[in-house]
Records
---
Amino acid sequence: MKILVMVKRVSDPNVIIRVNADNSAVDLNNVKMAINPFCEIAVEEAVRLKEAGVASEVIALSIGESQSQEQLRTALAIGADRAILIESDAALEPLAVAKLTAKVVAEEEIGLVLLGKQSIDTDNGQTGQMLASIMGVAQGTYTSKLEVSDEKVNLTREVDSGLQSISLNLPAVITCDLRLNEPRFASLPNIMKAKRKPLETKAAADYGIDLAPRIKTLKVEEPDTRQAGVLLNSVSELVETLNIKPEAV
């Protein structure tokens, strides 16, 4: 079975993000970029499945600008076998990404698709669900535990009410939550080996898909600065500060 794992290029989680001068977008000039942390978890899980003998090949896929090759090389250093980059200079919305991914899934005859549950730049959390719908296959979202056996995927999902265990038939689409695993560090020898692993580049326009945006961003603003806290000396002072009626306490 082949596993396709999605890799998205985002700003480093430790970098302080600024909005550009005209409030039209986030300013990414000279900002350090990295793999989306949830995508990194998906890569790690795909590699573990291959090491366990479940998968025959792990393919890393990124859809975006040409600089995404850097993040694909990191995925290859973690353990992916080869990579595909679908280049697009435009910022693609989740629906366009899902449609392009579905094309790759069909071309490569993929048995399992792993994605991060969301990306830390837009926080949409939509691509995996849209992809499963387009493919017409089962989906498991917010996955914190995953096992594959006998053409089935048994997983645990993190939901509002607690944990939910479900079983899916393959092929399937899985989105990975934070507690699924702890990604390994890419060793220097593996980083050097990754430079020799195949990385195929294709153009998004060649797939004949309507990539036009459906959403228009009107304005981007930084969040309000959090105000300093206040130390209170008693419960009654707290009640008074919160303007709570004494009989309600």
---
Amino acid sequence: MSKLNPKQVENLITPGTYEDGSGLRLVVKPSGRKSWLLRFQLAGRRREMGLGAYPEISLKNARLAANTQRALLATGIDPLAARDAERQARQDAQQASEARQITFESLALDYQQAHGATWSEKWRKGWLRKLDLYAFGTIGKLPATEINTEQVLKVLQPIWVSKTRTADEVRGQIEQILDAAKARGLRSGENPARWRGHLDNLLSRAEKKKARKRQHFAAMQWQSVPALMEHLQADKSLQSIATQLLILTGARARMVRFACWDELDLEAGLWALPSERMKTRVPFTIPLAEAVIRLLRGIPRIDGSPYLFPGQGKSGVIHDNAMRNLLHQMGHQDITRHGFRSSFRDWAAENTHYPREVCEMALAHDERDQTEGAYSRSDFLDKRRALMQEWANFVFPSKTIETGTKNSPEQP
């Protein structure tokens, strides 16, 4: 039999707990706030469940709510767990609704905003331009949740054979954007733009390999590199030091230009690049030869700049063409910065007996297929350290790198 009536509930002001029967009770706080509480037992354990505040929940509605929860108990369902599941379902539905309002084009702009601070203006415009030309017309207005493999193929298939390299770059951009969307909780599941173990089964791998081969960078013969390095040593500018680091490590120009002091561990002889600094979006560690460590120790640190090679432009680092211009001034208009990676690779193939996978990994090329990669996860760091030491010994035979630099004015 019920112990409370509406008038009594309205007039209660003394703090305490007032029973209505069958576990339903009214709790009056010292502040005067009143709320309903249902006490029940489940699996021998006493539990309590709030049903809402009075007067928002009247005595009648509190009893109805209590009866609903008791009905769940009678079927073996935990009312608290059921309520939590209902709240989660509502939250998921709300998030899904919000996610549907955010288009792929908007996500691409967000990605550019988040990561583009370290990009050159040319790269930033080109990055968005490729998406505008080849992706936005097909998937730009779709939310991330609706972009599947079929949609990605609609973007890539028309240009995969005729513009394979561009198509693969667009694929990589889509993959990055959808990964970011997943991190924001805007989609779930596998990334439909992933290459290995997914799109490589649906698009021609041969075309991708041919596109790689078609991109030739003018490279210096490996036999000529020591003579160039001797000339570079005579120049103490940051551009020269950056070029030497580029050659000695086999790194890409952008990796060197934006190199930060906190990426280096000179005691351990390691240069650890985070995923966002890598073309493959996979963290990579470069072992540093003794000559490289001596070179780096000679670079002065500039107050207020995290970079090894600071500059005066918007990027905060030396100009994109600083190393190229230096090489041209030395009479090497016929070679490119990227070409030194080929010089190193040719030297390794012709003068060492290191396995192909070690030489490729030294250039951050992991060419193991998905199955092999699942079992062989080594980055060959120790073997790469020995390889890069031999390369440095070849570049500087019986010589010690001189330290000290001078800053050259940078073009904005």
---
Amino acid sequence: MDSISNAILALSLIIIMFGMGLSLSLRDFALVFLRPKAIVIGLVCQLVLLPLIGFALISVFALRPEIAIGVIILAACPGGPTSNLITHLANGDTALSVSLTAACSFITLLTIPFLINLGLQQVLGEGTVIQLNVVQTVLQVFVIVIVPVALGMVLKSRSPKYALRMQKPVKRASGIFFVLVLLAVVIKEREMLMSSFGEAGLVTLSLNLLTMLTAFLLGHLFHLEERQRISITIEGGIQNGTLGITIATLLLNNTAYAIAPAVYGVVMFLTAGAFIFWANRSRAEG
């Protein structure tokens, strides 16, 4: 995507995060940390199991080095604001999702360089030291996630009736935006996706589904509430493809490394859409 598209996407996500804040309170976040089992499981899925699955997949699949490194970049990335949106649409625990996104985003400032260097050594047989732009990454998370959610929460605390009235139309608008983003990505990147999907599609789909399934099963194993299981499933399987593309093109100076994150972006939206449909249907039947 070009800079204008990225700016529009960021602005849209900021608005959506504000809408999410309208449905949250400080009590929601207090409950997350007072009962930390869910957030600990989510962090283990995101920071430990996801990279392990990524490294396992590049060993199993016969991939070009560029695709393999792209998969490692993905496995090193945090969830990002999109996972919060998908959790919101799937009626998961949004406070848990936002907390996991914030925590993972800060922790991965340290783990991303380590994991990517490890991946470069495994795939290319040589070490390459990269420096993540810490200030830019922290600022991105702060502006797109933390600030708008906090402003929404402030509005809810001061005008609860207005916030309650706005929740339904904002959620509906979020769903429409989700579909439009998917269509825009497919249309804009159709040539690159068509030429690379056969090579990167199966491995990125495997990464997405395996991480979501692992998180979902762990949620059942540790008897998490349904909304918490939904959140850690999405946080475990939905990675920040935009950050992956940025790392590939700006930090590693190799656009070929961005193929897997770009293909993953489309795969992610498709599986997330199916999961949203399933989660809402299961909730309605239950």
---
Amino acid sequence: MTRPVSVVIVSHGREAALKRCLTGVRQLLYPAFEVVVVADRHSLAMLQELPLALGIKTAPCDAENISLARNIGLGLAAGEVVAFVDDDAVPEPTWLTHLAAVFDDEEVAAAGGYVRGRNGISWQWRGAWVDGCGERHELPLDGDRPVVLHPKPERAIKTEGTNMAFRRDVIAEIGGFDPAFRFFLDETDVNLRLARAGHASALVPLAVVHHGFAESARRRADRVPRDLFEIGASLAAFLLRHCPAAERAPRQARFAEEQRGRLLRHMVAGRLEPRDVRRLLARLHAGFTGGGTRLPAPLPALPHAAAPFAPLPKRPALRPKLSCGRWWHRARLRRQAAHDAAAGHVSTAMIFSLTPAYAKVHFSPAGFWEHSGGQFGKSERSEPFFTLRRLRRKCDAEISRIRRERGLTGES
């Protein structure tokens, strides 16, 4: 069953990342979806000058509060299902097809997919559940089939903010996202509230998003934190809402130690100085104090969208385009891939050197997927370091690996 889906993207001060994300979203193979962008006014002004903005719903939000912005997006979303993807992420073309399909099961209120990291290969996120103290526990799944789970009130199925979807009526009824979580644990709070209400959640391995961790006011491009106040404040607010009183202080102490360890690793690597570590830890503890004043409050139900569902125009039925060649032909392969993408195709260029270099996958701002690395190197990190093979066999193996995510039915 094809149901109407709203894709919500929240952005703040990352115009280039937002443009790249929208380029990928417009290549989704799902037949009935609208796009809602909630962003700061400068980013929205940039969007209005681009053909990418044609047909999308937009709303301003200058506050750096991801929960507030997501609620604004929910207010505009007229789809039966609302899916969220971050502005520094790009979904695979079949992402929405797989994610929306699980809502055919009327029990499912929420769904989450898998997330690949910066190299486009390694998994940044797969299945997990979370407890009332905000601690995550791995939930490994076998195979690629979606799994519907029925969590207990104190054990929610975790979804990641950059790859999640909700039945709109359900999330609107519980008040959407709590603005006390300006950044961090915002979707985890929703997960626990849904679990308490007895709703089922699904994990969908083939609903894949690539997440880049772009630079922001809170972190540098190398993922070194700039400030830890909001992380500390969100944790304190979360513990007030979900964690037994006797367990709050120990959990806060464990979290502070985890953050200290992370900062020390950055310091040893030369990315922070000792004074930076002291400053950031002081900000974390200030956040604990500040978050302790964000007391739980009832969240009113969100109203239905005033504007009707506004799906993007249907794409022509163009099949995916794929090319594979050697590194010294990269300029020609990239030109052809960009040309195919501009013509509306889902375009992939595989460019390999005569080395055992590890594979990488990147979505180009020009709108095509680029796979790079060595002809003899591994893609999935569990593979052997070196495999002697011809270029054709390397390309075939890579096509087979991503066929269902990319929507490939063959090679052209």
